[in-house]
Amino acid sequence: VGVGYEIARCLSKISLKQDAREYIQKTNEYRKSQVLPNDSCFHAVYSSLLLYVYSLGILIRSGICVDDDIERFKNMLAHFESDGEAMILWGYLALEYYVAGKLDKFANIVRLHIDKDISDFSLYQQKRILFHTSPALYLNASEQYYQKIATFDDSFQSECINHIANFVISHYPYISRIDSKRVQNFQRDLEYNDVSALIHLMKISQDE
Q1: 20 to 30 A Cα–Cα from 96, which one of 5, 64, 66, 67?
Q2: For residues 138 and 63, what is the distance between their CA atoms, to the nearest angstrom?
Q3: Is the model's pLDDT at 203 over the cut of 60?
């Protein structure tokens, strides 16, 4: 697959654009024909995509990420067989934009790729998606987010609220992937908006 895209890229530089498009089409067809035969393969692909998100995060924080980089990531996810996991990956990427202060791009990703109807997913998958995307959904529209989790049990709501609070405190997009005891390693000086968010989270929390 990589070779196909590299051939297309090289051909396009020497004005053989029709040939380049044919290679791109063949590569896409090959991608679509491939299946993930088992869990280990699925997790390998997911881990690779997560690593790609980490890399994009570095570009975003450095101020050198361009729209083509995001479009390339979008095209990769188009061939990923799990919409739910794709939403989680978009959630991490949205938080990278939030931390970088690019709030328009943050809100756009949430609107297009995360804030979706997930009622057709299993209960487990609904909870998994909501938990991992909680910081992005909450920071984009707090009241709408709370309506999303209000139908779930109190314990799950508390876990989500705690997850959001950990992100607000740390501004580390992947805070859900580390041990809760390590959250303190990412603590920073809080700003006014951070304190306001934490106060609001305490008000809506069911867990004293």
Answers
A1: 5
A2: 25
A3: yes
